[in-house]
Amino acid sequence: MVYEPKAPVIPYKRTCPFDPAAEYAQLREEDPISPVTFELSPREKDGWLITRHDHIRQIMTDPRFSHRSELLALVHSPPFEVEEYSPEPSAPGNFVRMDAPEHTRYRRLLTGFFTVRKIQQYEPTLERIIDGVLDEMAEMEPPVDLVKVFAEKIPARSTCSIMGVSESDLTALAEHFSVIMRIDYTLEEFIHHNNELNATLERMMAERFAGDPGDDLLGQLIATGELTEQEMFNIAWIAIGGALDTTPNMFALGTFALLEHPEQLAKVRERPELMENTVEELLRYLTISHFGASRVALEDVEIGGRTIKAGQTVVLSLPSANRDPRYFENADEFDIDRPSRRHLAFGFGIHQCLGQHLARASLRIGFQKLFDRFPDLRLTVPAQQVPLRETAMHYGVYELPVTWG
Ligand code: HEM
User: Fold this and answer.
1) Residue 185: pLDDT above 60?
2) Which family does it belong to (predicted)?
């Protein structure tokens, strides 16, 4: 049986591979807090789509908005028939879908591993990983699919080294995540990959709890003695899943965008000091969190002249916020010289991306080395033929055929 996903309640079809759905520009100007109806919601079916940068930032820092799973409506339907939708509260350790103070307790245990300083200390290892991936790529006979040979490999190998996951477990986990992070799988695919993913993580945790926990990130967390096996399972799920579905898409889509903007690519190649800002601008311009973030109001909240009632879900369109002309001049242009730092590609507030410094360092070093090593890298198909990940939680490309030499 092939699962036919019900269209998400928000616009998601892209006409240009790098621009958010065309509807957002009009919504942002004319109806920035616009009503939507959720088919599946534990409380209110009526909710809102928020498209302006200032409203989204405000909501992301307002404790009257919650991220608790048992309260949130679904932005798109799951791959099975659901008659009654009454989600459970988040399992222990699944801090992404918790509010303070539960969220704070878990997040504090993890932040020390991902600070700017920690990632700076990790950079020599990251460089070695990236050089290794590029050495392997240079041995290949082009054309190659850049997604497979470059974009997926760097985050996979850095996750192995930081979290102490074996390469074979990581390969399996990556395959399962890549299916369940889409919204167009079949029911059978979902069940298979979800079960396999859980079984792999359960085995990994059981081994560590029974024997030597290891001295990597997961091992050090276990050694604190503060976390149960179930909590560790959920933390590992979030941390590994968070890394595997995001940075690869930014690498592949970012390379595609740079190849399609040769004048910008030439500029950053001439002036490598621009690479840091190029990464920020790519994060802003491409905003891979395709369906944005969502929150639910715990009480009635007035915002932008509308009342969001208690129990209503709001979808925060991060792709739209990052094209808001109130914050970014000529927002639809890709311009590596612009100040881009105020983008919301990593979210904002207490749930702001935990892995953002790792993602930034990986992208900065990765793009620099890719174009140093393959200065004449080019697509082997017309841009219109590159397959886009429109029905996935994180936007990107499924394949990027490239050649060189
Ligand atoms: C370019 C790459 C990435 C992008 C665009 C990205 C984007 C985001 C966004 C938008 C959020 C906030 C979601 C919300 O508020 O509802 C988030 C949260 C998170 N990200 Fe990332 N992410 C990236 C890379 C990573 C990496 C490499 C890791 C892991 C090492 C990671 C781990 C997490 C975690 C654990 C959270 C949840 C934090 C919390 O709830 O406190 N992310 N990410």
Assistant:
1) yes
2) Belongs to the cytochrome P450 family.
